[in-house]
Amino acid sequence: QVQLVESGGGLAQPGTSLRLSCAASGLTLNEYYTIGWFRQAPGKKREGVSCTSRHDGRTYYADSVKGRFAISGDNAKNTVYLQMNSLKPEDTAVYYCAVGGITPVQAMCQWEYDVYHWGKGTPVTVSS
């Protein structure tokens, strides 16, 4: 059974950093998957934050996080990270990680194309 477990969320002050983790079990995060981070703010639609493909080496970032967030992975730990710097109140949301097939990173992030595993999410609140 595939499980994606997010952690690292919490309360952060504007301008500070958080690192989210997504630990996978039941599958190996290798070149046959596209991996992404999504978020859903209260009262808003879920949006793709960053998606990366080990198949073609491409990474997508939403314009709202470009230059501030970075997605990375640790093969040994079968874990994907989202480093979030210079946090803003508008980054407040529940953050989810997701795994899909070999799919264009923009398609996965913008349309949730070919996503077939979701984590349960970790909340992030940015407030002073």
Backbone shape = globular
Q: How far is the N terminus from the C terminus?
A: 40 Å
Order of helices and strands: EEEEEEEEEHEE
Unreliably modeled segments:
none
Tell me which oligomeric state these chains represent: single chain
| CA-based gyration radius | 13 Å
Indicate the mean pLDDT: 96
Q: How many H/I helical runs? A: 1
Decide which structural class fits the backbone: mainly beta
DSSP E strands, number: 11
User: Strand count, sense and closure of the main sheet?
Assistant: 7 strands, mixed
**Beta-strand percentage?**
over 45%
* Approximate helicity band: under 10%
Structure notes:
- The chain contains one helix and eleven strands.
- The strands form two sheets. Strands 2, 4, 5, 6, 9, 10 and 11 form a seven-stranded mixed sheet that branches. A four-stranded antiparallel sheet has the order 1-3-8-7, with no helix packed on it.
- The model has no long low-confidence stretch (mean pLDDT 96).
- The protein has one helix at residues 105-111, and strands at 3-7, 10-12, 18-25, 34-40, 47-53, 59-61, 69-74, 79-84, 93-100, 115-118, 122-126.
How do the helices and strands line up, and which of them pair or pack?
Layout lengths: L2 E5 L2 E3 L5 E8 L8 E7 L6 E7 L5 E3 L7 E6 L4 E6 L8 E8 L4 H7 L3 E4 L3 E5 L2
Parallel strand pairs: 2-11
Antiparallel strand pairs: 1-3, 3-8, 4-5, 4-9, 5-6, 7-8, 9-10, 9-11
What attributes does this structure have?
single chain, 128 residues, mainly beta, 7-stranded mixed sheet, 4-stranded antiparallel sheet, 1 helix, globular
